[in-house]
Amino acid sequence: MNLQKAVFEAAFGTFSQLPPSDLPEIAFAGRSNVGKSSLLNRLFNRKSLARVSSVPGKTVTINFYSADGVRLVDLPGYGYAKVARSEKQRWAEMMEGYFNSDRNIKLVVQLIDMRHPPTKDDCMMLEFLESKKYNYVIVMTKSDKLNKGEYAARTKNISAELPFVPQARILPFSAVSGEGAEQLKQIMEQHLL
């Protein structure tokens, strides 16, 4: 799978706007400001194909990228408190519509900030993925921001915090250093076969 030739296709603000699912899809989900756009840029080996912001809640649409016969789907971040209730409702409807439709979702890449325990929203999302029997991998972002002791502690604690998730499904990742990028690409390819 050659992600370097990825192109931005379109952004959609409501579920009803989504085009039919005509390619296998890999969805990227996580709370606001967890690093979804940075992760995508690292996978694409591009600096700014996916728009990155230091302000939470900037991805307010479902963004579609295509590469080598697969569609990568950047979902809006959840859990950001400083938006209007109507905006939260719109995001929830988009997410529910996306996951409850008959899309050809091969893998969900669930991002969690490695510096912190999973949030209540993270756990709810993982429980949803489990209940719907989606294939998923947990990518622990921002691993470069931890020292060795913190890194070891978080790696150990995540198993206790998410006891229902096999350790093989948890991958430390850094958009800065590239840790985990090649392994994630291999996991993605395995689910596309």
Could you walk me through the main structural features you see in this protein, from its secondary elements to its overall organization?
The protein is of the alpha/beta class and 193 residues long. The protein has one domain (3-192): P-loop containing nucleotide triphosphate hydrolases (Rossmann fold, 3-Layer(aba) Sandwich). The protein contains five helices and seven strands, in the order ββαββαβαβαβα. Strands 1-3-4-2-5-6-7 form a seven-stranded mixed beta sheet, with helices on both faces. α3 (120-131) links the parallel β5 and β6. The longest helix has 16 residues, at 85-100. The chain starts with 6 loop residues before the first strand and ends with a helix. 35% of the residues are buried. The model is unreliable at 53-57 (pLDDT under 50).
Please describe the topology of this protein.
Blueprint: E1 7-12, E2 25-30, H1 36-44, E3 62-67, E4 70-74, H2 85-100, E5 105-113, H3 120-131, E6 136-141, H4 148-161, E7 170-172, H5 181-192
Parallel strand pairs: 2-4, 2-5, 5-6, 6-7
Antiparallel strand pairs: 1-3, 3-4
Q: What keyword list fits this structure?
A:
alpha/beta; 193 residues; Rossmann fold; 7 strands; 21% strand
